[in-house]
Amino acid sequence: TNTCAMSAGTPRALASSGQKPIQDIRHPLSAEESALSRSPDVLHPGGAGERDLILPNGTPVDTSSPTSSSSLLNRLQLDDDLDGETRDLFVTVEDPKKHVSTMETYITYRVCTKTTRTEFDLPEYSLRRRYQDFDWLRNKLEESQPTHLIPPLPEKFVMKGVVDRFSEEFVETRRKALDKFLKRVADHPVLSFNEHFNAFLSAKDLNKRQGLALLTKMGESVKYVTGGYKVRARPVEFAAMGDYLDLFTQKLGTIDRIAQRIIKEQSEFLMELREYGPVYSSWSSFEEDLHDPLEGVSGCVSNCSSALEELTEDMSEDFLPVLREYVLYIESMKNVLKKRDQVQAEYETKLEAVVFREDKKTSVPADVEKCQDRVECFNADLKADWDRWENNKRQDFRQLLTGMSDKNIQYYEKCLAAWESLIPLLQDKQEAKGETN
């Protein structure tokens, strides 16, 4: 968790820290290009480039990677295709394998790591992990970094419409989701330096019981905050976040339902096409004069079937998982907002106790100051993660929508090419008929 300086003086009213209030946020699926290409400065007018977060007490908050000498001296570029960025940690999830024992059947994935950070003993690692190991990592990240947005994992249970959790399609979809989860953690300037993440990537055996009962002081304050007290009002920027997440959830739900219906209708149409094509092939055996054109129609329908099958698979394997990931992302973001509200509620409770002199112990003012600093740390971390999430979302949905547009164009081009291939056959038959006459 970021370390915020303790402020001194008498308790003061809670003020929002960091950047300026979020303005009207367009939905990422808006038809207007400006909604997709908007820079982060639009959300925070007056800012340019990478700005330092400043708390109300004047303390700068550093949201960049820890500036350890080992990290800075070894920030070597390991990959040329990074859009000009320099990174020092690369993680991939690959090679799923099925394991069958007398007790259980499960899938493991090979987690490959390349790094120049001297926090690691080796420059490369290759370890096998199963889903419950990823789940352990995410839980540890939530415990130790309560002020940050932890990327979501794919759901533990079988996805909608998938019966066999060991099927090739399900396992590959999960592998992609686990790979994205680790990449998002590895790209985070704070989470990527977490000791549990280091252990997950490098330790041969994970000691999952170690520290399970321990929470950070922040975690304790979040967990055991007064349950009966509700925060008076979220600061305007966090209220805007909550409203946007509610709207985004509705839009994603609508798109998901329509996409599911389209896939269902395409699958039904595909089944009919597969029955439709062979009829022409069978018919051609009885029509000597029409043999070639009929076989051509059969082949054309077969090509259209293959193109439709590919389009349907792309929607199922590429389009829907992104929607589902962001539904889970929204749930994670809402949980962080609730934690922030709980910390603010704890601060307000303690502040009221001082104001109304319900508690006259000398330690209370210092305790109130600590609570306020926790709120300010929460605000700064959450805003930084919100900006990161917004940038990732714009990139993901731009890539998703342009990719689906390209796939649809390719589908219709393949169908058009298939039907155009019939023209020479029909022309030859027409010419032969004219010569006969």
Fold and architecture overview:
With 437 residues, the chain is mainly α. The chain folds into two domains: 68-207, Phox-like domain (PX Domain); 228-437, Substrate Binding Domain Of Dnak, Chain:A, Domain 2, CATH 1.20.1270.60. The chain contains eleven helices and five strands. Helix 8 (236-284) runs antiparallel to helix 9, helix 9 (291-355) runs antiparallel to helix 10 and helix 9 runs antiparallel to helix 11. The relative contact order is 0.13. It comes from Sinocyclocheilus grahami.
Key terms:
437 residues; mainly alpha; PX Domain; Substrate Binding Domain Of Dnak, Chain:A, Domain 2; 2 domains; three-stranded antiparallel beta sheet; 11 helices; 57% helix; elongated; PX_dom; protein transport; phosphatidylinositol binding
- Corresponding CATH architecture of the largest domain: Up-down Bundle
Instruction: Please report the first level of CATH classification, the CATH class of the largest domain.
Output: Mainly Alpha
How many separate helices?
11
Query: How many β-strand runs?
Result: 5
> What does the main sheet amount to?
3 strands, antiparallel
Strand order of the largest sheet: 3-4-5
Order of helices and strands: HHEEHEEEHHHHHHHH
How large, in whole angstroms, is the Cα Rg?
Answer: 28 Å
What percentage of the residues does DSSP assign to strands (E)? 5-15%
Low-confidence stretches: 5-84, 209-228
Helix percent band:
55-70%
Structural class: mainly alpha
The CATH H-level superfamily of the largest domain is: Arfaptin homology (AH) domain/BAR domain
What's the mean pLDDT score? 75
Count of domain modules: 2
Distance between the termini: 88 Å
The name of the CATH topology of the largest domain is Substrate Binding Domain Of Dnak, Chain:A, Domain 2
- Principal-axes shape call: elongated
| Oligomerization category of the chains in this entry | single chain
